[in-house]
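A brief tutorial aside. Many learners find it easier to grasp structure tokens once they have seen a single protein encoded end to end. The record that follows does exactly this for Bifunctional enzyme IspD/IspF. Read the sequence first, then the structure, and try to relate runs of similar tokens to stretches of the chain.
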Amino acid sequence: MTQVSIVIVAAGRGSRAGEGLPKQYRKLGGKAVLRRTIESFLAIDPGFDIRCVIHPDDKALYEEATAGLNLFAPVFGGATRQESVFNGLKALEQDTDYVLVHDAARPFVTHEVVMDVIKALDAGAEAVVPGVPVADTLKKVQDGTIKHTVDRSGLYAVQTPQGFPYANLIAAHEAALGRELTDDGAVMEAFGAHVAISKGDSGNFKLTTPDDFKKAEQQTMMALGDIRTGSGYDVHRFEEGDHVWLCGVKLPFTKALKGHSDADVGLHALTDAILAALCDGDIGTHFPPSDDQWRGAPSDVFLAFARDRVLARGGQISHVGVCLVCEKPKIGPHKDAMRDRIAELLAIPASRVSVQATTTEKLGFTGREEGIAAQATATLRLPMGDN
């Protein structure tokens, strides 16, 4: 079986896209660009051997971006892209047949682009570079003046991943040490190899400028066009105690909420809202109160589970809201802390989290201060065609 390895080059310091972060760690649709790039390859073939080449200063950013992914340890890059790729190649297993080198800032790589590169290598190509024909008219400009029109016939804008037999590429990099070449196709050209062109995709663009990120956000949102809303409701009665947990925040109080877990009525309702939007049962389905392992459990475990169910389906949480219904304790002073905690648990901005509170004007069980009720809503974006 052919062993294909992917070297993802993520050691650059480029921040022209704004926000002061290297662009591969900027968020795109709630996820770091690098994570989206990795997940694109894993969706094509989970068997790919993926090695990321990163800057030594970015280790914490890398660990945050790739949390939960089963990857090899990252490789530290060099002073140039060429050195970084070489470091990545040296880290690969020697039984690698093909290596595909890809820019971390191209998160929209497709199955077709990758497989066309591999098919060309299977057919005996020494090197394969995907590209798209140049469509715009090209002008040669000097000192702000157009000198002449460039013939665009036969001109291609090249992309990544660029594919090579592993032994050929590492030998070419060894021979090119000390030279500055723009990409791995150029390294192979300098080595005397014939470089084939395969079919690229206009959607497989590289994120460089703020406009690129705007375009990428639009592309991501279009792909997540299945918009769903779910609601949840929960009630817990009071018992003796000295605090309550509400929306992940511990509030000193003269009573406690009775429940199998920590009885956080706000997080329970919100967990059910997310599961409802997924049509994936409810909190009791996944965490039955008859199971002693959940006795006294913090409710953030349940909410994190619901969050991960969304992410596992390639979706994102767009907005959540919780409304707490009680006479006491007073919720107002704690709303911001609750919003921040929910945002932290769901890995979304606090600007997408609403926490409200109301009373029933002394009516009903909440009016008699017998317990607390919570209503919640969650809006999700899932990939089109999701079941």
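Self-check: The longest strand covers residues 226-240. If you spotted this yourself, you are ready for the next section.
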